[in-house]
Amino acid sequence: MDPSKKILILYASAGHGHEKAARAILEACRELQGVNAQAVDTISLVSPFFGNLYRQSYLLQIHYVPWLWGIFYYACDVSWVYGVIRWVRRAMNAALAGRLERFILEERPDAVIATHFLSVEVTSHLKEQGRINTKLLSVITDYLPHHVWLAKGVDLYAVALPETKEKLM
């Protein structure tokens, strides 16, 4: 790899899976000669109120009312429901993730490796607008693909299971 290649690994510190995946990727990147890689928590780059609310509500739901999380998770993966939610999500990310967008624009990475769907959507949007020309790798940390992970600007998906790959096709 070209020593001037800059890789930005974006994760969210809600739960631990996204961060652990990002740290493993960062460690692998550091073994490559001359690759400039850094891992950044996207929650630290969104509105502090929203970041804390997101993190706390996720943890409360999975610990105390996992059935409620399940309802949200599966409902958002229904095509017509996500068709509506997608516009709400874009508006929310536009309002709350301005610092994340500015960070990506300032860093001008050659590649973004996203282990959380927030950074997939934000980076994809910047690519669609023509504001960045970077490769976008979406590392799906769920067992199966979900609508929130999919975006037009993704160049490559990385999955853990053959079944996940089959569902993407």
Question: What's this entry about, in short?
Answer:
By secondary structure, the chain is α/β, with parallel strands linked by helices.
Characterization of this structure:
This protein is an alpha/beta fold and 169 residues long. The protein contains seven helices and five strands, in the order βαβααααβαββα. Strand 1 (6-11), helix 1 (17-30) and strand 2 form a beta-alpha-beta unit. Helix 2 crosses helix 3 (66-75) and helix 5 (98-107) packs across helix 6. It starts with 5 loop residues before the first strand and ends with a helix. 29% of the residues are buried.
Morphology: globular
* Overall radius of gyration: 16 Å
Number of strands: 5
Q: How much of the polypeptide forms β-strand, as a percent range?
A: 5-15%
Question: What is the overall number of helices?
Answer: 7
What is the typical, i.e. mean, pLDDT?
90
Report how far apart the termini are. 29 Å
- The helix-and-strand class reads alpha/beta
The largest sheet, given as strand count, sense and whether it forms a barrel, is: 5 strands, parallel
